[in-house]
Write a structure and sequence with these properties.
By secondary structure, the chain is an all-alpha fold. It has helices at 7-23, 25-35, 40-56, 69-83, 88-103, 111-129, 139-154, 159-175, 200-216; strands at residues 5-6, 108-109. Bound molecules: adenosine-5'-diphosphate and magnesium ion.
Length: 218
């Protein structure tokens, strides 16, 4: 199947992400209760509810609404930065904004362009939070997803398959945070007591990429 990665698909992605995070809010907050301050699910849900309201206010392509996947992601990023406190708001906001900027105003995104956009998003997160892989953060889910997408481009996989590989890599990456000791963010205050729990931000990154896979295979 070759799904067109156009503004409608990106809009559906963000809406599906908002739905998934709302449905998984308690689980994300539970993960954050174990190694943080029990607000990650609520933080993201608040931000994405605000994003969904902004999107519902206008159809893509009409005046005042994003006319390209890139401008949509910039709008999502700016809204998250405005609405979400804590570490994850600025980090996710930056990721979406940088990914959107990398896309420019192209109306339809190729898998290679999607890879470049996620790579730019990851670079933004790294620059802002200075977390490396292994520090038990969202980077541990996002970085392997970006690599899987790069590999899929090289292998000439179709759009849905490539996104599936990225989503799976993010899920595996999130699970791999369980035995890690946190070296960044609030969880790092716990030291060795952070071991044995999945990182909430890595878990939400896996949800976000899984939402993209869901809409790409519809
Ligand atoms: P807060 O920690 O301020 O309460 P959240 O609970 O919403 O914010 O988000 C916590 C998540 O943010 C963590 O699980 C981790 O994935 C991510 N995070 C925290 N600090 C960093 C950082 N420096 N770099 C990358 N991700 C980070
Ligand atoms: Mg928190």
């Amino acid at each position: 199947m070759n799904t067109a990665l156009d503004t409608a698909l990106f809009t559906a992605w963000i809406e599906e992400t908002a739905r998934t995070v709302a449905a998984e809010k308690e689980r994300l907050t539970g993960l954050d209760a174990a190694i943080g301050d029990a607000d990650h699910g609520a933080n993201l849900d608040r931000g994405l509810t605000a994003v969904a309201a902004v999107l519902a206010a206008g159809e893509p392509g009409t005046p005042g609404s994003p006319g390209s996947p890139g401008s949509l992601l910039v709008l999502v990023g700016n809204t998250l930065i405005r609405k979400v406190g804590g570490a994850s708001g600025p980090l996710y906001g930056t990721a979406f904004r940088e990914a959107g900027k990398a896309l420019g105003d192209t109306p339809e995104v190729s898998v290679a362009q999607l890879h470049a956009a996620l790579e730019a998003g990851l670079a933004g997160v790294r620059k802002l939070g200075s977390a490396a892989e292994g520090d038990k953060t969202m980077v541990d889910a996002l970085a392997p997803a970006v690599r899987a997408l790069e590999q899929a481009v090289q292998d000439g996989k179709d759009t849905a398959e490539a996104i599936g590989a990225a989503a799976e890599a993010a899920r595996t990456g999130a699970e791999a945070t369980i035995p890690m000791q946190a070296r960044k963010g609030r969880a790092s205050y716990l030291g060795p007591r952070s071991v044995g729990h999945e990182d909430p931000g890595a878990a939400s990154t896996a949800l976000i990429l899984s939402a993209l896979h869901t809409v790409a295979t519809r």
